[in-house]
Design goal:
The complex is a heterodimer of chains A (601) and B (351).
Chain A (H helix, E strand, L loop, with lengths): L10 E9 L4 H14 L4 E6 L8 E9 L10 E6 L5 H7 E10 L14 E5 L1 H8 L3 H19 L4 H11 L4 H21 L17 E5 H12 L3 E4 L6 H14 L11 E4 L3 H13 L4 E5 L1 H17 L3 E7 L16 H5 L9 E3 L4 H18 L2 E7 H5 L1 E5 L17 H6 L29 E3 L13 H17 L8 E3 L6 E6 L3 H13 L4 E6 L1 E2 L3 H9 L3 E5 L5 H9 L7 E5 L8 H13 L1
Parallel strand pairs in A: 1-4, 4-5, 5-6, 8-9, 8-10, 10-11, 11-13, 12-13, 17-18, 17-20, 20-21
Antiparallel strand pairs in A: 1-3, 2-3, 7-14, 12-19, 16-18
Helix pairs in contact in A: 1-4, 1-5, 3-4, 4-6, 5-6, 7-8, 7-12, 9-10, 16-19
Chain B lengths: L37 H15 L7 E5 L16 E4 L5 H11 L4 E7 H5 L3 H9 L4 E7 L2 E2 L5 E2 L22 H8 L3 E6 L3 H13 L3 E7 L15 H7 E3 L2 E5 L15 E4 L5 E6 L9 H13 L3 E8 L6 H5 L17 H8 L5
Parallel strand pairs in B: 1-2, 1-3, 3-4, 4-8, 7-8, 9-13
Antiparallel strand pairs in B: 5-6, 7-13, 10-12, 11-12
Helix pairs in contact in B: 1-6, 2-4
The chains are: A alpha/beta (601), B alpha/beta (351).
Chain lengths: 601, 351
């Protein structure tokens, strides 16, 4: 396997192996946030089980002064806190690396390795000596290892203390306990080991103007800023935090200060069949409405996505992809809903897709999704994924233009309806092949019967081939027109490039890093990240420029490549496939290894 | 759903309602259902009720799923938007529509297949949310458009035109509604417009979800000897358990109420539902008592009709959710977007 360049200052990866339900998540988040505040580019990947308590869970932190923060798959330091997984965790450390473990109990001799250094900290003993409550003893072990890491990795103590003060503002007793545990670990490490380790942190200025945010929070903010007033959903991992955050933001920003009433309504539906139905009903009636879901929910929504497509009703669906098929692995990441989303529902259907590549785009594209749905009167699916949605990413601070006004598309007002002699729902298409719609309750002249059954351009029922085809052909033209309205691909070229790397969504950091790593080996590649479907001409042109493009994605069946083959005229044999679909976030080394091996063949 | 435009014939003598509209203004396209279909009578009753209640047609939203009954929104209130959606999904679509605009009057028309089989879950949850709407189940015990299969409301022993009698227990929307906490429950018969019209008006005035099970015979597939949803069977087995009048808010209170049996239920909009006659000891506000009465009569093989249960004390989805009085779809964007400064402020906690 291609190894990362050797670890050093502000360039290393650690992995923390924990038992879920023991409170490790807050300790690990504290570590990552401290590193962020020291100005060092950092990423945290939570590899967690579909379980509440007792199963193995891991957290990986990578810092990289050059800003490469895709998942590392070789670790300089393992914090082995889970005896169930000692065996595999200790094996994962690179030769010359370190293992931090709880030395309250001896480590079985067969677990020892000669090529790594073991750092024993008697965490359980320390916590049992200093804390009385049983639950507190378990929780504080996490803070104690955090303290040891503060010493070993040269994390600035005031930064950690400040974070503790912020977290436990108004809870002085808790803050003091955490502070005490932090010191226990810190003092032990300082007294018994050479601190800091050869790889460690030093303050830099890498995070100016940046924030730490996960994609689901950013998506929820986008929906808030877009003016969504109705949201319907069914709880599902990993999309739940989209709606949890939307609710939190609505509580804060959408309660009318005078009346105390809510300028939003969130409906927890009985299932995803109902959730999408509610979204369609609300959009039909003129509200901006959305749902958030994952693959299993999207499968259920297929039926009514076809209705919204055919009856031309806006709808925004956020799909935070997880591992399928079926229930699959709910807490693991994948990009395997691409084809299902593109053609969701029976009959001839095609949808507009947006592919955010980082939380900043989750925010921007969520807003754009509503504009596109209204403009094209059709469902828009925002394809996020678990890595993007649930992990914290470092991105430039989100910005908002107060001059923004929603593009509500062609909606006839009461005055406009008053002035026309007759209204027919699907006549009078504009340059986007969209006809004006009317909303219920506005004017009697706007009345018509919306239907998912065969209809002609007047909105009337039809079983006549020509009338049916006329509407369907316009829908095809409308979908093609959306190619010019979706965000264009991100393209980065380099001098003398012999090939291209093409990717989508959360693969972005790994593939960018792969481009750099390949360049170090003398392989120059241009880069394209797709951001919308239907594909615009720029996508086809870029692919034609290259005899060879590697399409990098996280699913077994090369779904993005398949979509490119179907929806562009680029010859199939120019597109090779690089796929990683085991469920963990993509790493640059996986991409480089696979490309190198295909080039050698 | 083929629809034929109905010629507009204006009779100068036609009575006008408070909006100055005649009953013709509440009609729709010509029905394409079979001649004699019960659903057309329900449509006629709806037209009458909407006209009598002076609902502006464009403030009505007609919601339906799929099936013979779901075609009928084309046949009334041509001046209203309608949504002939997907099989069994009307309750969810109506929920979303209502969420967006609480000012409209929602008239849902469904059937026993649409509501008691494919859409049973959604119906239950619409009841649970006390969504403000009129929900009519045009109940004929069979699937018409697919040519006569039994539906979930078919009674044990009911005979099809061909083949074996039904052996499975029926799902009764009235007892279902009672057990789920529905706040307005009625059963009627398409052949009794005099009973149906005031019930529909009360349903329109109701604060929440109004469930109407209307026995509406299918002349083509379920109106024969041995059927328990035929015109003849319904006429022979039906009892009119309660008799109620609808007194609109500004309406004159007539003194012709039978003493003793009378009970007034004040509706949320100021109108009154006046029970002229109810069985001895029957209280349409007592869920348990209504349930026991229904069980007893049904054991006797009787089809109980009338406005059976009303509870005006429970808030609808919007009241429970504390939603803005202005329909959400009408809120100006300026009221919805927190703006750049708030975003800047919020992000101070994201470091």
């Amino acid at each position: 396997m291609q190894q990362r360049a050797s670890a050093g200052v502000n360039d290393f990866a650690i992995k923390l192996a924990n038992v879920n339900g023991t409170g490790s998540a807050s300790a690990n988040g504290l570590l990552m946030q401290s590193m962020f505040r020291m100005g060092v580019p950092v990423s945290g990947k939570n590899l967690f089980p579909s379980n509440i308590q007792g199963l193995p869970t891991w957290y990986e932190i990578r810092v990289n002064k050059s800003g490469h923060t895709s998942r590392a798959v070789d670790y300089d330091l393992m914090v082995a806190m889970n005896a169930q997984t000692y065996d595999r965790d200790i094996r994962e450390v690179r030769a010359g690396g370190y293992v931090l473990y709880d030395s309250s109990w001896p480590l079985a001799p067969e677990l020892r390795r000669d090529d790594v250094e073991f750092i024993g900290v008697p965490l359980a003993h320390l916590c049992n000596e200093h804390f009385l409550d049983a639950r507190e003893r378990i929780l504080m072990k996490n803070i104690a290892y955090t303290g040891a890491l503060v010493a070993l990795l040269n994390i600035e103590e005031p930064v950690v203390e400040q974070l503790l003060s912020e977290t436990f503002a108004g809870k002085e007793k808790l803050r003091a306990s955490n502070q005490k545990a932090l010191h226990l670990g810190y003092e032990h490490a300082m007294a018994h080991y050479r601190c800091p380790l050869p790889f460690h942190l030093e303050r830099m200025q890498g995070n100016e103007g940046k924030i730490l945010i996960d994609g689901n929070t950013a998506t929820a903010l986008g929906c808030l800023y877009a003016g969504a007033t109705v949201a319907a959903w069914y709880p599902i991992t990993p999309a739940t935090s989209v709606m949890d955050n939307f609710k939190t933001f609505c509580d804060k920003y959408r309660r009318d200060p005078e009346t105390g009433k809510n300028n939003y309504l969130i409906l927890q539906a009985e299932d995803e069949l109902a959730a999408i139905g509610m979204v369609i009903g609300a959009n039909w009636n003129g509200a901006r409405a959305f749902t958030s879901t994952a693959g299993p929910g999207l499968s259920l929504m297929n039926e009514l996505l076809g209705l919204a497509y055919y009856a031309e009703i806006p709808a925004v669906v956020v799909d935070v992809q997880r591992v399928g098929p079926s229930t699959g692995m709910p807490t693991r990441t994948q990009q395997a809903d691409i084809l299902e989303s593109a053609y969701a529902s029976h009959g001839d259907t095609k949808h507009i897709l947006l592919f955010p590549g980082h939380p900043g785009e989750c925010f921007d594209f969520a807003v754009r999704a509503f504009d596109l749905a209204d403009r094209f009167q059709t469902p828009v699916i925002l394809l996020s994924d678990l890595d993007l949605g649930m992990n914290d990413w470092v991105v430039p601070r989100l910005t908002w233009d107060d001059a923004y006004r929603p593009d509500r598309g062609r909606v006839l007002s009461a005055d406009e309806l008053e002035q026309i002699s007759a209204f027919y729902r699907y006549t009078g298409e504009d340059e986007h092949h969209v006809a004006a719609r009317s909303l219920p309750g506005v004017h009697p002249r706007g009345a018509y019967l919306t239907r998912g059954s065969g209809h002609n351009r007047f909105g009337g029922y039809t079983e006549t081939p020509d009338e049916y085809r006329e509407v369907m052909d316009r829908l095809a033209r409308k979908h093609r027109a959306a190619a010019r309205a979706v965000p264009p691909p991100v393209i980065e070229r380099q001098e003398g490039a012999q090939m291209a790397l093409v990717t989508v969504g959360s693969c972005d950091p790994a593939v960018r890093e792969a481009v750099d790593l390949l360049a170090q080996r003398g392989i120059r590649a241009n880069y394209m990240r797709l951001r919308g479907f239907p594909f615009d001409q720029g996508v086809t042109d870029f692919l034609y420029e290259h005899d060879l493009s590697f399409v990098v994605e996280q699913n077994r069946d090369a779904q993005l490549r398949a979509l490119l083959v179907l929806e562009t005229c680029v010859p199939k044999d120019r597109l090779r496939s690089v796929r990683e679909y085991g469920g963990f976030p993509l790493s640059a080394t996986q991409v480089v290894d696979e490309i190198a091996s295909q080039l050698e063949r | 759903m083929p629809s034929i435009v109905k010629p507009v014939v204006m009779h100068p003598g036609l009575q006008r309602n408070e909006l100055g509209l005649t009953v013709r203004d509440y009609e729709g396209a010509m029905s394409t259902l079979c001649a004699g279909c019960g659903h057309d009578s329900v449509t006629a009753a709806l037209i009458r009720a909407l006209w009598e209640s002076s609902i502006a047609p464009h403030m009505i939203a007609k919601m339906s799923g799929i099936g013979c009954s779901s075609k009928t929104p084309a046949y009334f209130a041509a001046g209203a938007h309608g949504f002939n959606s997907a099989h069994g999904r009307m309750p969810a679509i109506a929920t979303g529509a209502n969420a967006a605009n609480r000012d409209l009057i929602y008239i849902g028309v469904s059937g026993d297949g649409d509501s008691l089989s494919i859409g049973l879950g959604q119906l239950c949850h619409a009841i649970r949310r006390n969504l403000r709407m009129v929900y009519i189940i045009e109940n004929n015990g069979v699937y018409g458009l697919t040519k006569g299969q039994f539906s979930a409301s078919a009674d044990i022993g009911s005979k099809p035109k061909r083949g074996e009698p039904n052996r499975l227990a029926p799902i009764d929307p009235v007892t279902l509604g009672l057990s789920l906490g529905a706040t307005f429950i009625a059963r009627s018969f398409s052949g009794d417009k005099a009973q149906l019209v005031p019930i529909l008006r009360a349903a329109i005035a109701h604060r929440g979800f109004a469930l109407l099970d209307v026995i509406s015979p299918c002349v083509t597939f379920n109106d024969h000897e041995g059927s328990t949803k035929s015109y003849r069977y319904t006429r022979e087995h039906r009892i009119v358990a309660t008799q109620s009048d609808f007194v609109p808010p500004a309406g004159e209170i007539l003194a012709s109420v039978a003493e003793g049996d009378a009970a007034d239920v004040a509706m949320h909009d100021g109108s009154v539902v006046r029970f002229r006659a109810v069985p001895e000891g029957y209280d349409p506000r007592d869920r348990q008592a209504v349930y026991s009465y229904l069980q007893q009569r049904q054991e006797q093989g009787e089809v109980v009709t009338g406005l059976l249960y009303v509870d005006e004390s429970v808030g609808d989805l919007h009241e429970v959710s504390n939603t803005s009085d202005t329909p959400l779809a009408r809120l100006p964007y300026e009221q919805l977007c927190p703006g750049a400064a708030a975003l800047e402020q919020l992000q101070r906690s994201f470091v």
